[in-house]
């Protein structure tokens, strides 16, 4: 009887180990963004830069969707209202994509905008009319320019297929959104950050 009991316990232990291994394959361990350096996933290596992209895309939607809603009642310009609706609707699409990608990759996403974005939301929530229109166009255009460089950098170098797919979509959305905002005629391009200074060209050596 003792032999039978030991055999049953051994089989039960083996079942538990196998079940745990199966769960580990289906549900990848969550990544702490603060400590992530490099983690292997079925879609390829996942780096800290990849995780940062997922977080930034998520946070962009978390403030742009409500701000797009603000535009419906606070903007004076009809075009600003239209752009606000476009941003709100398209960020809903992008937010779904990033949440699906994060779930597959085991990345925990934030549930609120970052402090700067919260400050911009509060600023726009207190404005209306021409002041709202101007700040809406410029705050959002500046924010899109900053996130575009992050998305493009990850798209050019990520080794993870899931992140690469999301970054490609992100580039398409961000470029379209910058064009929407510029179509309002309110963006002050002189206030935007200048492009990085290119590296000096190597000297040309003439043949002797």
Automatic annotation (TrEMBL):
Domain DUF4142: 50-179
Transmembrane segments: none
Protein name (database record): DUF4142 domain-containing protein
Gene3D superfamilies tied to this protein: 1.20.1260.10
Pfam families: DUF4142
Signal sequence region: none
Organism: Nonomuraea salmonea
PANTHER family tied to this protein: BLR2558 PROTEIN (PTHR38593)
């Amino acid at each position: 009887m003792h032999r039978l009991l030991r055999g049953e316990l051994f089989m039960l232990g083996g079942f538990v180990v196998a079940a745990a291994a199966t769960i580990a394959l289906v549900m990848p361990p969550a990544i702490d963004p603060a400590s992530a350096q490099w983690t292997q996933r079925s879609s390829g290596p996942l780096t800290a830069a990849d995780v940062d992209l997922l977080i930034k895309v998520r946070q962009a939607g978390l403030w742009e969707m409500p701000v797009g809603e603000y535009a419906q009642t606070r903007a004076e310009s009809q075009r600003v209202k239209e752009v606000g609706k476009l941003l709100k609707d398209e960020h809903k699409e992008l937010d779904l994509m990033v949440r699906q990608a994060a779930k597959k990759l085991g990345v925990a996403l934030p549930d609120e905008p970052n402090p700067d974005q919260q400050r911009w939301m509060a600023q726009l929530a207190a404005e209306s009319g021409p002041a709202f229109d101007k700040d809406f166009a410029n705050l959002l255009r500046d924010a899109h320019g900053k996130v575009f460089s992050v998305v493009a950098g990850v798209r050019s170098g990520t080794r993870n297929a899931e992140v690469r797919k999301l970054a490609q979509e992100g580039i398409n959305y961000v470029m379209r959104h910058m064009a929407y905002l510029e179509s309002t005629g309110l963006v002050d391009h002189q206030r935007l950050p200048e492009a990085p200074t290119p590296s000096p060209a190597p000297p040309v050596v003439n043949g002797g």
